Amino acid sequence: MTTTRTEDRLPGVADPLEERVIASPTWISRTISTAVPPLVAGIVGLLVWQLLASRPGTSLTGPVETFRTLVALTFNGDLATNVGRTLLLMLVGFTGSAVSGVLIGLLLGSNSLLDRGLSPYLVGLQSLPSAVWIPLAVLVGGTNVSSVIAVTVLGAIPSIAIGTRDAVHGIPPLIVRAARTLGARGPIMMRQVIIPASLPGIVDGLQHGWAFAFRSLIAAELILGTGIGAFLGAAKQENRVDKVLSVVIAILIVGLVVDRLGFARARRALRRRRGITISGDLL
Amino acid sequence: MSERPAVLTAPGHEPHAGDGKEHEDVALHVHDVSRYYAGTKGRGHALDGVNLDVDCGEFVCVVGPSGCGKSTLLDILAGHQQPDHGEVLAHGEIVSGPNRRRMVVFQEHALFPWLNVIENVSFGLRLAGHHANAANHIAQEWLERVHLGNVATARIHELSGGMKQRVALARALSLDPEVLLMDEPFAALDAQTRDHLHAEVQQLWQDTGKTIVFVTHNVREAVVLGDRVVVMAANPGRLRAVVNVPLARPRLLEDPEVVALARVVGQYLRDGTALDGEVFDATPRDEAPPAALPGMS
């Protein structure tokens, strides 16, 4: 039963595993080619920022001053505590919206009656800025953490649900027919065919949902006064542009890290396993 | 549904349709099956009054121009579509939905890209109640029978088109179905790969004794593989002729007898008038070659 992938192939059978190997560059040139473009773009961005900050009469602080503040805030622990609190809320809120959004999306995707009934409202909700939930959350739930979480969940559910529904609709019909022929029905069809078949699309939906959740959370925090949002509000009260910008950068970094280490990796792994990666320039 | 093309049968073949014969020898009994195009309220016929009996262990090929409903017929046999009129019996039972006893091999491979090769084959076995070990064992055996024992852990997208169809074949046969339904399974493959697979399918059929219904638009392929070739006509989709293929196996696409008989089938296919339900029987072979038939140029 020991099997190997590439060795001992049949004679006369084309071996796509080998044909597909393209001369791969060394890791040094690969690192350079992945690192240089964002580095150049970053330097250009910093220069523009510096130019904007050196206009006469502006209160905008330059990159150097801002980064000094950022480092100071990072080391005195203020920023870390607030970032940690925000990420904790994010974890709770995103988990809630992910679970409910994926469930709603799977239901809508596999039941056309529910889909026709509910999807118009879902699309409407998706275009609703999540900040409009904040007053409602405060009036109904009070000024507390659960209101912040509720706003986060509500902000992310529509895009996750719609992404999941679209992923289910995108499953090739032949796959479903083959599964049915092989005996898959009901819950088994859902668990062993529909969910794995639509997983790349579900992960895309979760990635968008994460962004929506993060925006909703920061908005809610800003108004209700917790975590990074509260910190941002305080910096504004103190008239500290450098502090506000430091928080903006911190939020950007958190978003980037989560995306690169979480979603982008998951997406790439899923796509590579299924042979649907595209590399190189399309145009 | 005005005229109903009766399926005549050649000498040596007992006619099945409507003669009260016991069901036990008949794997598939298609009785007066019509199917309308969606939304035409009975005006557009995808299939119009099709009658066909397929014996147990028989290899029947269905050829026809695109739009003649041959894939619809296969879908109905599989249970993925229901006929609007008439009925299909599989081993005496009315076909009302997909069933493990009638496996389909599709034109595209329809393998699951999230599973590797052996997981694809064992998928149906697991659903059929086999334990993981037993399912893997059977799956590995079938992969070896289609000469893919060494790529069991490869991912689907790493295989060539011919290998994918072999996996699909192994996946279908591993469930030990009574009937194998094949919908233009080799249409997208290169000629050399198709030759290999023709030989393998003939071998597998002889080893397993399965009943096979094989839909193709390639006349020669139909003659190479089939005991009988059912010729269909389009607009509306109906049976035009049934050609018996009494040639010895294994057959090759370039065998002169295959080429000659394929020309006859091609003639039925092109010349659509007044041939409904006609049977051309090429037995016995020492008579005039089929190429000398009237109407041939």
Strand content of chain B: 15-25%
Stretches of chain B where pLDDT falls below 50 for ≥5 residues?
1-21, 284-297
Order of SSEs of chain A:
HHHHHHHHHHH
Helix content of chain B: 25-40%
Strand order of the largest sheet of chain B: 6-7-8-3-9-10-11
Distance between the termini of chain B: 32 Å
| CATH top level assignment of the largest domain in chain B | Alpha Beta
| Average residue pLDDT of chain A | 86
CATH superfamily of chain A: MetI-like
- Which structural class do the helices and strands of chain B define? alpha/beta
- What is the CATH C-level name of chain A? Mainly Alpha
What is the number of strand segments of chain A? 0
Query: What is the count of β-strands of chain B?
Result: 11
Order of secondary-structure elements of chain B = EEEHEEEHHHEHEHEEHE
Any idea what the shape of chain A is? globular
How is the biggest beta sheet of chain B arranged? 7 strands, mixed
CATH homologous superfamily placement of the largest domain in chain B: P-loop containing nucleotide triphosphate hydrolases
CATH architecture of the largest domain in chain B: 3-Layer(aba) Sandwich
- CATH topology call of the largest domain in chain B: Rossmann fold
Strand content of chain A: under 5%
SSE inventory with pairings:
The complex is a heterodimer of chains A (283) and B (297).
Chain A: H1 16-19, H2 27-53, H3 63-76, H4 78-110, H5 112-126, H6 133-141, H7 145-169, H8 173-181, H9 186-224, H10 227-237, H11 241-274
Chain B: E1 26-36, E2 45-55, E3 59-63, H1 70-78, E4 85-90, E5 93-94, E6 102-105, H2 117-127, H3 132-145, H4 161-174, E7 179-183, H5 191-208, E8 211-216, H6 219-225, E9 228-233, E10 238-244, H7 256-270, E11 278-281
Parallel strand pairs in B: 3-8, 3-9, 6-7, 7-8, 10-11
Antiparallel strand pairs in B: 1-2, 1-4, 4-5, 9-10
Helix pairs in contact in B: 2-3, 2-4, 3-4, 6-7
